[in-house]
Design a protein that fits this description.
about 20% helix; 3 helices; five-stranded parallel beta sheet; alpha/beta; flat; UDP N-Acetylglucosamine Acyltransferase, domain 1
Length: about 180
């Protein structure tokens, strides 16, 4: 059995110079993002767009949310990201319209290839469908698609795709019922 090659992993260049410079600029931008008072969503939208995010109209993002790489974020109109949500978007994260990412939810679009001794970085995208809801403290793993209208329950761990309008709960997340909207 081969052994891990952490030295090779650390020696590998994970990001081109352009991205490294953008990361340094965002380190300063993130401070501004956090000090903009809670009810002032528009300035945060403008700031994120300035760093390459595609942010729709009337999007509300809490100032305590962590967005790792704004240029890898697309969020549709009328969507929201709650308090202390963690958007670890080393890979692209797309959030549809009228979707909600609740407080302390974690969207993780980055991992490592554990089968390779050098543990190279992987950045599979995440897609959150229109009208979907990722509830408090839920985790959505790399490469996962959450379907339109789906609900990932509080503290659920979604490591596989979630069908549209399904409600999932648990670790690992399993379908518990279909979401039906009241008329």
């Amino acid at each position: 059995m081969e052994k891990l090659d952490i030295e090779k992993n650390r020696a590998g260049r994970k990001y081109p110079l352009r991205v490294q410079l953008m990361r340094m600029a965002w380190a300063a931008g993130r401070i501004l993002f956090q000090i903009i008072p809670r009810p002032f969503y528009a300035p945060r939208r403008v700031l994120l767009r300035g760093f390459g995010a595609k942010v729709g109209k009337k999007v509300n993002i809490a100032n305590t949310a962590t967005i790792y790489f704004p240029w890898n974020l697309e969020i549709g109109d009328w969507s929201a990201i709650g308090e202390h949500a963690y958007i670890y978007n080393l890979g692209q994260i797309t959030i549809g319209e009228k979707a909600t990412i609740s407080q302390r939810a974690h969207l993780c679009a980055g991992s490592h290839d554990y089968a390779d001794p050098a543990l190279p970085l992987l950045t599979p995208p995440i897609s959150i469908g229109t009208q979907a809801w990722v509830c408090a403290d839920a985790f959505v793993g790399p490469g996962v698609e959450i379907g339109e209208g789906a609900v990932v329950g509080a503290r659920a761990v979604a490591v596989k795709n979630v069908e549209p309008w399904a409600v999932v709960a648990g670790n690992p997340a399993r379908v518990v019922k279909k979401r039906e909207l009241k008329k």
